[in-house]
Fold Amine oxidase.
Amino acid sequence: MRLFKHLASTALALGLAAGAAAAHPLDGLTAEEYQKINQILRGEKVADDNTLYPLIELKEPAKADVLAWKEGDSLDRKATVYFTSAEGFSEAVVNITKGTVESNAKTAGQPMVLFTEFMNALEGALGHPDMVAGLAKRGLKPEQAFCLPLTGGNFFTEEYQNSRLMKVPCYQVPEGSNFYAKPVEGLFAVYDIGKKEVLRVIDTGVVEGPKDGWGYTEEEVAKRLPLRPETKPVKLVQEGGPNYKIDGSHIEWDMWRFNFRVDKRPGLVVSNLDVNDAGTWRSVIYQAHLSEVFVPYMDPTEGWYWRTYMDSGEYGFGLFLSPLRAGIDCPSHATFLPATIADDKGAPLVIPDAICVFERNIGDPAWRHFEVFAQTPENPVPAEGRPATELVVRTASEVGNYDYLIDYRLQQNGQVNIYVGATGLDAVKGVASTSMKDATAKADTAYGTLIAPNLVAANHDHYFNFRIDFDVDQPINHFSTMDIVPAKLDASSPRKSMWTVEHKMPMTEMEARYKLSSSQPRYFHISDPSREGYLGHEPGYMIHHGDVSYGPFDFENDPPMKRNAYIEYSVWNTVYDPEQRYAGGKFAMQSDGSDTLAEWVKKDQSLMGKDIVTWFSAGFHHIPRMEDWPVMSTEWKTVHIMPHNFFAHNPALTIRK
């Protein structure tokens, strides 16, 4: 409910969307461009007043054209448009520059859920007589409940054919801040958002619901527990203004420069990430963005087995960006920027303060050394070192009960860290148990944890797949691994065990899939074979490590896992294809798994002499705990990217004290 009100109120801020025309080929679509797209489609009788748009996004120019582009050059601006039509959904390519529709055809799949469809499902479910009757059995009137439409996956049954389904459980309308504290358990509707009708209401039996509202505002917490004593504030401050420069979508800071935009599906997109090496700008990453977020729950019961969300492809991380708060989400000295996407009608919709940019001294040394041999009683020599500062570009998307922070953190030593911060609220189900001593506790907690009286949070996973198109100095790169393997030692050696580095280069896409394990240490190296680096090395960057997780999943027979089989490996590599942007496929809604990263690589294309795209899945298993409730502490997961024989020495050497 709050989410829908936020989106509706945000739409009123359209006046904020107006801005200058795009200055770079990879800039996001402007408010004026969204309006022009609408005009072009109407002018060519492709769209009318009843047309709705699940997705409008920039259709990027050919990569070669972007790399050859210089300020002042002109490249046609185009958009890919998914829209409702008499045949269901159609896909058009609109040439904004020329004012034409270049192509228009029925889509092969279903785009993400429309805001209008959310509202129809919410109202339809709550207004159905069987839902009203189910609520009445639980002592509730329709006005005392709100229903939350959720994507129902695809389980390859007849029900999912020629349909567009959501499953709609309900909650008691809260008196305070927590919308998820009182689930109406055992009751949900199956709603076809395409046909705008409730197919059926499922009622598996009344479960006595929780009584506690579990609010989490400071005022609500103070009524429950004494707040901590007031303390002296610890703040990040920056005197004299920022050291970074923002020019439209272009940011320069310290040794880095890059462009950014927001798209409705992946959220923040970072492009043309270059690093300054002793006065020479060198390319590192052509583009990086979130590819998909997969959150499968591990509860096989009727009301939960289908909860296997593809948060980016089904809902949209850009659509659900939430305004950031100074002093909480970002330091007060941060620069806050709006994001402009399209609403259901194709009109520009502004999300204020959707991006924050800031630099911070992280309180750690970038490097240090204390030289004991330089010390004398008369002249003690302090440690030599430099303070570490980083640039952070941050967004936060609220997808249902979860909030996900996405950071791109740039370091003064040439490293790039992608951070994902998961916070928000656990998804909970109502149960009879109030304690683990209750007779019902064993059954109630078979697939989760009792985190509060009458509330179980189900076990689940979070997988975040990132598409990282490295262009180390140029698009044609090598991909290889550096494996830590046992060294072969002479029998006469006093040492009987050591390790050495074995360099391996996969020839094809199928060979270039990897799992990470601490028992089999391995680093992933992307390098430029055409450039002789300092000291004769092949200059490169590497994915040093990241947070990963694997489950005992059946990727051939379990429908949600077949649709998201890219989580079987953490690292994949493909030959660059501009149409392959999302690991879960072009259309995630009720997808069948045939158009995914795990299927693309079966072509087993050669990686030799090719422009290679690397895909990385960070993830974690979430076994809920009482400390997660009523709101979770932020859990950070990383993708760690660092230079490897790219620079002549430590780039942080030149930091001033």
About this structure: The longest strand covers residues 348-369. The two ends are 51 Å apart (CA to CA). The chain is about 10% helix and 40% strand.
